Amino acid sequence: MANAVAPAGPNARQPDVNVTAVLSHLAAMYPDARCALNYTTPFELLVACILSAQCTDKRVNIVTSRLFPRYNRPEHFAGLSPEELAEEIRDCGLYRNKARHIVQLSRILLDQFDGQVPESREELMELPGVGRKTANVVISNAFEQPAIAVDTHVFRVANRIGLADAKDPLKTEQQLMEVIPRSLWSRAHHWLIHHGRTLCSARSPQCHACPIEPYCRYAAEQKTTSPAAPVRPAAKAARKAASGEATAP
Predict the structure, then answer these.
(1) Which of 57, 151, 165, 171 is catalytic?
(2) What's the pLDDT score for residue 241?
């Protein structure tokens, strides 16, 4: 995979890290990285994304495993009241707002889009409860359009490593698009999420166990001041997966 990672272009923003090396290692560490939400249609993914706000993917999948066998099309949700749907998803967190948004957007899809999920980011973002991150997840995973959805993991990891140097998700997304080849945008999104969950956690990043450590801005700043921590099993597995598979140019 390392040979497939090329620079984004001569006019791209030049970060302080070796982008090619970082992406090559991430690709080797997480070759099977994919969307963690379970879905079979663009509409199911849209609903799952809305449910995922301030809720774990694991919990969302539990909720949708019982929800989608009965309700999985816009007309199904449009026929419910927000109160009825709220009772179905109340263990998902913020369930009243989510129920209202899902019912409203289902009715809009039927009235304005013939019951189909629009394929453009702009049209998606006009739907209730759909922000830029959700829109990017949908167009990337459901419609295979290059996009980088910046969630909390992508924001943290990208700015820690040095792929971005931004204070908000939108600027982070824009900077990532400048330095990552367009053909890798969607895959890089998943790599960064998995890295954030496996090694680069918010409170205890496992820098000493990370194959990206030699290229990471945060690690360079911290390695002389932070004591070594024990290597967790997940960290060992990630390092083993990358060992001998990714080489820096």
Answers:
(1) 151
(2) 52
